[in-house]
């Protein structure tokens, strides 16, 4: 789930695609993407829960 999310595919605006990332930067971007995805999932669940 979430592999084809446009959020995860978008390259970060301040880093060119070819620029090598440090492990810390990779971890940071992964963490924020995971956080964003988890937040959107819980938001979806909360809204669908209110509907029933």
UniProtKB/TrEMBL annotation:
Disordered: annotated segments: 1-29
Organism superkingdom: Eukaryota
Stated name of the protein: Uncharacterized protein
Organism, as annotated: Cronartium quercuum f. sp. fusiforme G11
């Amino acid at each position: 789930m979430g592999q084809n999310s446009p959020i995860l595919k978008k390259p970060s605006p301040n880093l060119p695609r070819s620029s090598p990332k440090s492990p810390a930067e990779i971890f940071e971007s992964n963490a924020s993407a995971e956080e964003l995805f988890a937040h959107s999932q819980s938001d979806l669940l909360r809204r669908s829960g209110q509907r029933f």
